[in-house]
Design a protein that fits this description.
Blueprint: H1 2-18, H2 51-73, H3 77-91, H4 96-112, H5 116-135, H6 141-153, H7 157-174, H8 177-193, H9 197-213, H10 217-233, H11 237-253, H12 260-273, H13 277-293, H14 297-313, H15 317-333, H16 337-353, H17 357-374, H18 378-392
Helix pairs in contact: 2-3, 3-4, 4-5, 4-6, 6-7, 7-8, 8-9, 9-10, 10-11, 11-12, 12-13, 12-14, 13-14, 14-15, 15-16, 16-17, 17-18
């Protein structure tokens, strides 16, 4: 009996051991397969193909690319990538640039499909090509541009940025201002895409300086707008404020007044963030005046709401109430009943804080009437009215 139990236990343990997951065999790098290919049995003695042979091979490889794309479209990804890898192996015989461009194209497909293994294989090959070319001192502008594009396609920012910095240095050495601008734009966008806001800002600052030097008013505005976005994202209110003020001056000089109300609100918000309430108040008032004169009532209302909140937060409720009275007229002018309802709520809360129960009750009742017409927040205003009645009762 004991022997039988022992054998049974041993068998169970053995079976359990058999069921343990086996370590996954390492995948073979499909770019390192060395089996001769019918399209290119062997290179000629010189190691390079003649122009005619290159042209013929390119045609065959383009056909392979089309076949792979069709298979992918038909939902046969493994078969598609098997053909693409064959194409990529053969592209090596056409030189670095041809291979890099093809690697980027296929790598982007792998990245879009979240095929991590394939994206890594292609990225490693790109890095190897770059190192090999550097060791051979065979790096030229065409290869750098191909590498930069390919690194972007497989979403590896660090080597992409380094390559574009080399391209920028080359453009500066040649005095090619158009190439400098294009490369700086690429660098700015790359850093922005990967949340490196200081580097993105540095690139846009250079672009802005260059645009101003050549009197390019259009791009001056574009780069100022980009800098505003970058500094806002980086949560740098001081830099954001300076840039927005420069942008406001540019709009004024160009008589483009329609963009000023929103910008003035943003400037005021930066002053608030920097704890400068007087400057914030002034800019909110300017935003309201501009918004009203331009019939941009949404911005006029937003400026008044923020101005009222500013006064309220700095314990100046009477000024806040004056602002909200103007806000009521603004919302009425634009038939913004939701805005009217919210304005009455804001006023009611201040009156309630001041224990001015009659005015608080009147404000909440006005809000309730609007809530009923909108079929929205009726319970909320009914609750506020109940609060007022409870607090005013002896």
């Amino acid at each position: 009996m004991w022997i039988a139990t022992f054998l049974l236990c041993f068998t169970s343990v053995a079976l359990a051991a058999d069921k343990k997951p086996q370590p996954e065999e390492p995948k073979i790098n499909p770019l390192e397969i060395t089996t001769p290919d019918p399209l290119l049995p062997q290179l000629p003695k010189g190691g390079t193909l003649s122009p005619e042979e290159q042209s013929k091979l390119k045609g065959s490889l383009d056909e392979l690319n089309s076949q792979a794309a069709a298979l992918l479209q038909a939902g046969k990804a493994p078969e598609a990538f098997e053909i693409w890898y064959r194409e990529l192996r053969l592209r090596r015989s056409l030189g670095y640039v041809e291979e890099v461009q093809a690697l980027g194209r296929v790598g982007e497909v792998a990245w879009q499909r979240t095929q991590k293994f394939d994206a890594q294989v292609i990225t490693r090959r790109l890095l190897a090509i770059q190192k090999e070319a550097e060791d051979k001192k065979a790096v030229n502008l065409e290869l750098l541009q191909a590498l930069g594009q390919a690194y972007q396609q497989v979403r590896v920012p660090e080597p992409a940025i380094k390559v574009y910095q080399q391209i920028l240095a080359d453009a500066r050495q040649r005095g090619d201002t158009a190439a400098q601008e294009a490369t700086l734009k690429t660098l700015a966008q790359l850093n922005l895409d990967w949340f490196d806001y200081p580097q993105a800002a540095a690139a846009y600052e250079v672009l802005l300086t260059q645009a101003q030097a050549r009197g390019d008013r259009f791009n001056e505005v574009v780069y100022l707008q980009q800098l505003v976005y970058v500094y806002d994202k980086a949560k740098q209110p001081e830099n954001a404020l300076k840039t927005k003020q420069r942008l406001a001056e540019t709009y004024l000089n160009q008589k483009d007044y329609t963009k000023l109300p929103a910008l003035k609100i943003a400037i005021a918000s930066d002053y608030e963030a920097l704890n400068k309430p007087d400057e914030a108040s002034q800019n909110y008032q300017e935003a309201y005046s501009l918004g009203w004169s331009l019939q941009q009532f949404a911005y006029a209302s937003e400026a008044l709401q923020k101005l009222g909140a500013l006064y309220h937060s700095h314990e100046q409720p009477d000024f806040a109430l004056q602002v909200y009275e103007v806000l009521l007229k603004t919302e009425q002018q634009s038939y913004n009943f939701y805005g009217l309802m919210n304005a009455y709520d804001l006023m009611g809360q201040i009156y309630l804080d001041q224990k001015n129960y009659p005015k608080a009750l009147a404000a909440f009742q006005q809000g309730l009437e609007l809530a009923k017409s909108l079929q929205y927040q009726e319970t909320y205003f009914a609750t506020q009215i109940e609060r007022v009645n409870q607090q005013r009762s002896p």
